[in-house]
Write a structure and sequence with these properties.
alpha/beta, UDP-N-acetylmuramoyl-L-alanine:D-glutamate ligase, 4-stranded mixed sheet, binds alpha-D-ribofuranose
Length: 323
Amino acid sequence: MEWPNAMDPKPNILVVGSLNMDLVVRAAAMPKPGQTVLGERFVTAPGGKGANQAVAAARLGGHCAMIGRVGDDAFGLQLLDALGEEGVECTGVAATREAATGVALILVDRCGENSIVVAPGANALLTPDDIYSRCDLFDRAQVVVIQLEIPLPTVRAATTAARRHTRTLVLDPAPAPAAMPAELFQVDVLTPNAREAESITGQLAIEERVDKNVALDLIARGAQAAVLKLGPRGSLVVTADGQFARIPPYNVAVVDTTGAGDAFTAALAVGVARGSPLPEAALFATAAGALTCTRLGAQTAMPTVDEVRILMEDQPRGKGGGQ
Ligand code: RIB
């Protein structure tokens, strides 16, 4: 992997997606239905899959712009400030009086696993017109990244705009819908985790034998490439033109997995925008995702490009190619 130096131009990434305020409590274990458990300190922290990916892309060396919606309220202001501090361009993020800013209730257990409920609020009011009015941002982007925490018609508008104006379209199918519309498979790269891929294909990627079939299924449905986020098993790249690369995991001490998938997708987008072959971009993404697990929170945990470089140098893995 060629590391950027300060003189290199930053690749332009556009993220279309959600912004949430995360309301987080850690507890020894997740409560069972009907059970109350005592947790630790309550924390509010900026989140939302879209905003997390925008922050990660900026920290990893991209020039990032975002299209989204917040409420005209205190959480909305805090989320916009958080993006601004990271240098994310927010001219495409509008504040509405018609809904409150999205919030996510997040429980994190002793193993760092999370469970999340999102109240979309203003995210649900992001419209196709919000997309069509910002074709300039699509024109300029080398890579557009979209997730599924915004309304489906808006996702469709964004995929159409990306196909018309942008070089590469990455769709992170998270959260995975019960039935993914056929046209959403027509993207350059799909980046589901194992559970999301299971919702889409009906097959759970739990071991090497199954992973490749799951990825091939996504390709058979229309994706040019599938990059599976396999958590403690690393990641897997399969492309429609026959590339196959298994990326081993990086060894880290897991504190909180929230946002790791977002860091992964953002890093993949930055790698691709910089011209890296997909397996090399997936290696970078696997390291970025692993580092995110070492800290509490989503945006607060996103690594910088230097932190990723140090992890990759400490735990060399080749170039991310191979069988
Ligand atoms: O992927 C993690 C994110 O999912 C959280 O930040 C939460 O806001 C939800 O969108």
